Amino acid sequence: MKANIDNAVAEIRTVLEQVHALVPNATTSMAGYPMLFSRTQACSTLVSASQRVILNDVAVYFEGKQRELALSMSASHVR
Question: Where on the tree of life does the source sit, at the highest rank (predicted)?
Answer without folding.
Answer: Bacteria
